[in-house]
Amino acid sequence: MKKDSVYTKLKKTEPLLHLLFWGIVILFPYLKYLGREGGYPMSFSHELVALLFNMIPTYIMYLWFFPLRDKKKYILLVLLIFIGNAFLHYYADSFFHMEEGHKDHRWRSMISSLVTYLSFSLVFFALFSIKKLYAKQLELDTTKQEKQQAELSALKAQINPHFLFNTLNNIYANALKKDEKTPDLILKLSDSFRYLLHEGQKKKVTLNKEITHIKDYISLQEERLSTKVKVSFSEDIHNLQKEIAPLLLIPFIENAFKYTSTIKGNKHPIKIKTMLNADQFYFYCENSYDENKTSEIETNWKESGIGIKNTRKRLQLLYPKQHQLLIEENENLFKVTLTIIL
């Protein structure tokens, strides 16, 4: 994550930033007087003492005052610290200025120190604010990511029981009729659930695995509804190793079989197409339906079924601004067109 990287780098390089800042502070007077006759008149020990007294109030502000939530209660205390430090700084500095005229500049010296403390505090407040901004953004991104992961887990959890409930009902009905295809149906169901339990729990799977799972599911339904439906499945995928989030397409296909199975007559067409063009994946599913028969479908399948509602949410979470889902219902035809940038 980019923001995580920036925040981590900032924390790692912060000590170097502090050293660089204070190094510039202590060397600036010498650089300013570089080339002038006599150079900078004060000793290096004088600058070290000044540096120490500048650092004390600066780090009190940076490490204690800035992180406080209720800063107003401590403003007077901070002011006293500044003034007290300025007094101590003045008397420590007097050892380097033995001339009597130094006392005449006491207040000017203290005011200068207070202005310096304030200036340095503002610099470190800027650093503190940048760190806080990145930390807050990182926290928000982490929370958002955790929320999305929780939602995706919940949505996946809805898929498995839903698929199991419908398919076991179908197999049970065949078993009651002592249909010879029942063992084959159970085997295909086993393969489907092996995919759901293993590959379906991953963030992404190859198109090869997802398409194979779709074919197995279609085969399962064709055996169950051999006279009822006529499935046309086509694929044009040049790179089967391209990855996609699992279980995004099955709800649309399941929906097609569910609604087609309620129509009277035989050989009702279901058209399914998959295609990959560069990074753009295309999916199309078309099936007939009878508006008068939708009431026969279970309550949790009304309004295009829980699977499609579920898939809409997953697409929004997994492929925000990278997908387009178009669902059309006209002339007793239900059409789903989905494009995803993988």
Describe the protein in words.
The chain is of the alpha+beta class and 342 residues long. The protein folds into 2 domains: 2-139, no CATH class; 179-341, 2-Layer Sandwich (Heat Shock Protein 90). Helix content is 59%, strand content 14%. The chain is built from 8 helices and 7 strands. A 5-stranded mixed sheet has the order 2-4-5-7-6, with helices on one face. Helix 4 packs antiparallel against helix 8 (305-318). It is rod-shaped, with a radius of gyration of 36 Å. The chain starts with a helix and ends with a strand. Mean pLDDT is 82; it is low at 298-305.
- Overall spatial form: rod-shaped
> CATH topology of the largest domain, anyone?
Heat Shock Protein 90
Structure class: alpha+beta
Q: Determine the number of helices (DSSP H or I, runs of at least 4 residues).
A: 8
Question: How many domains comprise the coordinates?
Answer: 2
Order of strands in the sheet with most strands: 2-4-5-7-6
CATH superfamily of the largest domain: Histidine kinase-like ATPase, C-terminal domain
Give average pLDDT, whole number.
82
The name of the CATH architecture of the largest domain is: 2-Layer Sandwich
Counting copies of identical and different chains, the oligomeric state is single chain
For the largest beta-sheet, the strand count, sense and barrel status come to:
5 strands, mixed
